[in-house]
Amino acid sequence: MRSVCSPAALLAVPFALAAFSLAPSSAEAQHEDWETIEDTGAADEDVGTERVPLRPVVLDPYPGELRLEAAFFTRDVDGVQTSFVSPFAEADYRFHEHAEMVVQMGAAWAKVDEESAARPGNLLLGGRFVQELGTYPWLFEVKAGLEVALPTALLDEDDDFVDNALRLVAWGGASSMRGGRDLWLWTPDRLSLVVPVAFVSRHPALHLEASLDVGTLISIEGEDPEVAVQFLVEGGWRIAETFLLAAAFSGSAVPTGDGDTFQSALSLLADLALGEGAGIYARLWMNLDDPNGFAFDDDGVWGMTGGVRFGLP
């Protein structure tokens, strides 16, 4: 039984190899969201149409969005240089008023001293029901759905111990750099079912978001299933419909794991809209406690992510 592959183990794995040493959707006003309505109260010759803005342009200029990012971390631990890099891609697309699809895929790379390893993460596919609430400018969205993370992150039992340990370090680092979140993306040999629920404000200036995700991670090797839970609460302010500053508090845990698996983290986000549905963003993730340690302690993990996003027509 490979307990080292469990989600709980990944929370503490980033420095395991060193121990035996060898982070608005917004756009410019060119893309306007209009509705044409009949002016039924006018006389015959006066009957016409009126263009009425339904919502601020910044909210939904495109039905979908593609995000490409990379996370980075490095630190010298007891004379051993440890570095992580994790590229990540995510796309969501609203194909119906009340439905959207999502695809996520990442990869993980770790280097500890002179040894390194790179592996893909798990591929996530999902669908979400979307319900809009409120009236402008106090518009909100509630989302709930079902996602499946396919086991594309795999260990090879024929490889030696150090190679597999490095791969576990890489996967663990990819999660640790992002506050210990999304363990279903980074736990090898697991098929996961995830239920996400989110509440998002659509206010033109005020940014609010709260989410809760519960995942069941099912081993393809016959081990016991694990349950992972995570939440995030984020608030921020959008300046001139183009520049967003936000802060988030998040937590993740593996209730089925051994010991204290709860990981809390704080993150800071800066997002700049470039127009035509495109933008750039950066997020700093800071772990606050064990198992990944306080971000800026000698044995703690932080993560710096930077990315670009594009509107999908």
Can you describe this structure in just a few lines?
The chain has helices spanning 7-11, 16-19, 161-176, 183-186; strands spanning 34-38, 49-53, 64-77, 80-96, 99-112, 115-120, 123-135, 138-150, 190-201, 206-219, 226-239, 243-253, 263-275, 278-287, 302-312.
Describe this structure in words.
It is a single chain. With about 325 residues, this protein is mainly beta. It is about 10% helix and about 55% strand. It is built from four helices and 15 strands. A hairpin with a 2-residue loop joins strand 13 and strand 14 (about 280-285). It starts with 6 loop residues before the first helix and ends with a strand. Mean pLDDT is about 85; it is low at about 20-60.
Per-chain topology:
Blueprint: H1 7-11, H2 16-19, E1 34-38, E2 49-53, E3 64-77, E4 80-96, E5 99-112, E6 115-120, E7 123-135, E8 138-150, H3 161-176, H4 183-186, E9 190-201, E10 206-219, E11 226-239, E12 243-253, E13 263-275, E14 278-287, E15 302-312
Q: Could you give a short account of the major beta sheet?
A: 12 strands, antiparallel, barrel
What number of domains? Answer: 1
What is the CATH architecture annotation? Beta Barrel
The portion of residues forming beta strands comes to: over 45%
- The Cα radius of gyration reads 22 Å
In CATH, the topology is named Porin
CATH superfamily assignment? monomeric porin ompg
Strand order of the largest sheet: 3-4-5-7-8-9-10-11-12-13-14-15
- CATH class equals Mainly Beta
Would you tell me the overall average pLDDT?
A: 85
Shape: globular
Let me know the number of strands: 15
Structural class: mainly beta
The number of helical elements comes to 4
Query: Secondary-structure element sequence?
Result: HHEEEEEEEEHHEEEEEEE
Q: Uncertain regions: pLDDT < 50 for 5+ in a row?
A: 20-58
Instruction: Give the termini separation.
Output: 47 Å
Fraction of helical residues: under 10%
